[in-house]
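Morning. Coffee machine broken again, so started the prediction first thing and wrote up yesterday's gels while waiting. Chain of 235 residues, entered below exactly as on the submission form.
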Amino acid sequence: MAAEPAHPTVEALIRHRLGEALGGIRGSIEAALPMLVFVVVWSVTQERNASLGAAVAVTVVFAIARLVQRQTLQFVLGSIFATALAAFFALRSGEAEDAFLPGILTSCAYLVGTVLSVLVRWPLIGLMVGAVDQTAVAAGDPFRWRRNPAAVAVCSRLTLVLAGVYVIRVGIMGPLYLTDNVAGLTISKVVLGWPLWAGAVAIMGAMLLKGHTPIDPDDDLVQPVDLREPVDSGE
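Came back before lunch.
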């Protein structure tokens, strides 16, 4: 007889794996703050070295803290890329608001991507869940969650919440950018950063707490992957 799974429902399993995939408030701050510091300093001083130096200093502090705690630098490294891209646009045009353009365009792309992922039944949240399924990833089968229709359905609903985040970001920051409202963009970057993300995560959490789709102990979703057997992502 198969042992009881550690997470007896689809929602509980997805909630657990999303907790591993998301960086929480700390990860969101690490990803966004260096770029925000660059924009604020650049808006005030118009000095390239001071703006970049301030952003680098914040990034270094975050990186040292992670290294001391022997934790992943994933979100810190992401912030380096975002800051470099923002700096390129701002320094190239000389306008502070252009530092926000990459983020707005990225949100547009993510919005299209999240909606399309649901339509083709490869929801983005499912891909995140599969990426932290260490057993399946080690066996070369990170898409085994797709063989559980309930998991696909739950992940699709969660992905639509994520799409809502991008709708809000683009809907607010797009007009602010078009009207050259740097102050509004700066405030929006903060409010629509980790606070909005935290709100979305709270909604997802409530959805997962409300759902109680049972997982059979023999379900492939919670079973060790047999490396000798061919894998099938399913439809």
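The longest helix spans residues 149-178. Going to sketch it on the whiteboard this afternoon.
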